[in-house]
C-alpha cells in the first residue's frame, strides 16, 4: 500500500552555510518534531515538511524508491554545494517486517541543515510556486520554523511498564527459540521485547536526542516522526559508489563485566565461541546479500570490540565498491536496503525461516524497531542505521506521553533466557537514562 501526495513539482535550493562557531551540531535542533541524523558532529537536521510518502507491505522499499525517483526527476534543483546529502534529500524510516502495519516513510523537510567534514549547508525545498528561493530566504524561513516549533522540556518518567511482550513472555520465547534451533529449523534467531516508559508530560524529544548524542558519541543519533534513539549499527552507507556497514552482534553488559575489569571482560567477549558464532552469522548474511552487487568487498577476519557506555559489542566494518549496472550507474542506498535488510543481527539465519519464527514467537508488530532509519539523496547516496537502542513516542490523550522501547538479542543453541533478558535491559539503558526513568 502506498500513499502519494499529488501537487506541483518541488523546487530545491542548496547553499553553503557558515558554521555557527563551535556550538555542537544538535544545538541547532529545535522542536519536538525535528528530523535528525547525527554522528560525530556531522549529519542532517530537518525542519518543517515539503512533502512525504508512506508505504507498507512487501513492496514498501520499491514503492518509496519509485516515488523518490519520480520526485527527483520532476524537481528543479539548484545545488551549489554538490555533496552527498545536498540537493533533494529525504529522511526515512522503514518497518521491520513486510507484515507490519507501520507506515514506512520518506519525508522531505522544507529546510534542511547539513554538515560534513568539508563544511555546512542549508537546503530549502518547496512546492509553492510563489516562493522566491534564495540563501537569505532559506535562513529567514528556518528562523520562522524554529520560532513556530514547540519544544518540550522537563517531563519526568513516572514508571516503566511491561510492554506487549512481558519479561516472562520474552523468556518463554527464548526457550522456544532455543528448542527450534536445536531441532535444526534455524541456526540463529533474534528475539525482542518492548517496555513502556510513562512520562508525566510531552516527550522532551530534542533534549533526549541531545543527551544521547553526547553520551553515545560513537552511535548515530536518529529522529523521524517520533522514532528516536542512537544506534551503534550502520546497516548501509552509500557515498559516491562505495558502500560501508558496521556489522554488530555479540554483546557484553559493561555493568556485568565491571568485576572482571575492562580488559579481561573484552578479552572474554572476543574469545567466547557463542558470541563469535552470533557475530559470524551477521557478517555472512550481510556479505552474501551484497556480494552479487559489488566489484570488491573487504571484511576483516577478526571483529574489534566496540565500547559503548552501556555494553561492549563485537563489531566489524565492511567496505564494498558497488559494481556498475548495465545502465552505467551503481545501485543507490534505497535499492540496497531491500537486499541487505534484515541482517542476521536483527532477524536470523536462514533469514526467511527466522523471520517466520520471529512473527510466530513474538506475535507482536515490531513497527519501526530494527528497521532501517536514515536519509537518502537523489544521487543515491544515503546512510541507514538499524533502528536499535531507541523508542517510539506514543502521544497520550491527556498530554502525558509514553515511549515504547524495544531491545532484542541474538539467540543461538546455547543461549540462556535469564542472560538474554538482562541483555535487553542493558540495551534499553541509554533510552531509560536519557528519559530519566526510575
Ligand atoms: C537486536 C539488537 O541488537 C543487535 C545488535 C547488536 C548486538 C546484538 C546481540 O548481541 O544480540 C543484536 O544482534 C537490539 O539492540 O535490539
From TrEMBL:
E.C. code: 5.4.4.2
Residue stretches spanning the membrane: none
InterPro entries (alphabetical): ADC_synthase (IPR005801), Chorismate_C (IPR015890), IsoChor_synthase (IPR004561)
Catalysis: reaction(s): chorismate = isochorismate
Entries under Pfam families matching the protein: Chorismate_bind (PF00425)
A molecular function GO annotation: isochorismate synthase activity
Keywords per UniProt: Isomerase
Chorismate-utilising enzyme C-terminal domain mapped to chain residues: 167-427
UniProt similarity note: Belongs to the isochorismate synthase family.
Protein name: isochorismate synthase
Amino acid at each position: 500500500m502506498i500513499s502519494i501526495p499529488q501537487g506541483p513539482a518541488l523546487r530545491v535550493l542548496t547553499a553553503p552555510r557558515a558554521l555557527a562557531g563551535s556550538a555542537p551540531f544538535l544545538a541547532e535542533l529545535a522542536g519536538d518534531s525535528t528530523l535528525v541524523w547525527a554522528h560525530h558532529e556531522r549529519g542532517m537536521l530537518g525542519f518543517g515538511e515539503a512533502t512525504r510518502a508512506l508505504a507498507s507491505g512487501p513492496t514498501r522499499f520499491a514503492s518509496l524508491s519509485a516515488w523518490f525517483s519520480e520526485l527527483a526527476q520532476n524537481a528543479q534543483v539548484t545545488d551549489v554545494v554538490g555533496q552527498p546529502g545536498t540537493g533533494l534529500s529525504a529522511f526515512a524510516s522503514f518497518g521491520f517486517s513486510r507484515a507490519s502495519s507501520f507506515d514506512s516513510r520518506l519525508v522531505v523537510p522544507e529546510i534542511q541543515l547539513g554538515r560534513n567534514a568539508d563544511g555546512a549547508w542549508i537546503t530549502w525545498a518547496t512546492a509553492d510556486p510563489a516562493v522566491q528561493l534564495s540563501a537569505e530566504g532559506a535562513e529567514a524561513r528556518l528562523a520562522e520554523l524554529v520560532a513556530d516549533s514547540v519544544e518540550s522540556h522537563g517531563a519526568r518518567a513516572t514508571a516503566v511498564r511491561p510492554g506487549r511482550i512481558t519479561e516472562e513472555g520474552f523468556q518463554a520465547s527464548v526457550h522456544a527459540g532455543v528448542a527450534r534451533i536445536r531441532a535444526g529449523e534455524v541456526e540463529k534467531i533474534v528475539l525482542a521485547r518492548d517496555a513502556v516508559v510513562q512520562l508525566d508530560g510531552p516527550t522532551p524529544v530534542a533534549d533526549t536526542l541531545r543527551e544521547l548524542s553526547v553520551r553515545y558519541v560513537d552511535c548515530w543519533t536518529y529522529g523521524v516522526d517520533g522514532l528516536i534513539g542512537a544506534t551503534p549499527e550502520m546497516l548501509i552507507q552509500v557515498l559516491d559508489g562505495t558502500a560501508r556497514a558496521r556489522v554488530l552482534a555479540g554483546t557484553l553488559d559493561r555493568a556485568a563485566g565491571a568485576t572482571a575489569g575492562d580488559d579481561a571482560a573484552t578479552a572474554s567477549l572476543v574469545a567466547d565461541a557463542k558470541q563469535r558464532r552470533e557475530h559470524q552469522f551477521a557478517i555472512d548474511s550481510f556479505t552474501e546479500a551484497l556480494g552479487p552487487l559489488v566489484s570488491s568487498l573487504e571484511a576483516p577476519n577478526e571483529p574489534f570490540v566496540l565500547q559503548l557506555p552501556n555494553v561492549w559489542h563485537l563489531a566489524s566494518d565492511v567496505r564494498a565498491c558497488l559494481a556498475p549496472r548495465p545502465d552505467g550507474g551503481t545501485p543507490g542506498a534505497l535499492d540496497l536496503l531491500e537486499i541487505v535488510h534484515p541482517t542476521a543481527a536483527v532477524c536470523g539465519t536462514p533469514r526467511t525461516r527466522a523471520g517466520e519464527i520471529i512473527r510466530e514467537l513474538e506475535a507482536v508488530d515490531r513497527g519501526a524497531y530494527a528497521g532501517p532509519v536514515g536519509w537518502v539523496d537523489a544521487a543515491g547516496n544515503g546512510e541507514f542505521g538499524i533502528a536499535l537502542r531507541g523508542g517510539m513516542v506514543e502521544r497520550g490523550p491527556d498530554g502525558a506521553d509514553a515511549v515504547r522501547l524495544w531491545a532484542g538479542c541474538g539467540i543461538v543453541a546455547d543461549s540462556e533466557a535469564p542472560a538474554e533478558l538482562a541483555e535487553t535491559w542493558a540495551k534499553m539503558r541509554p533510552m531509560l537514562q536519557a528519559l530519566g526513568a526510575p
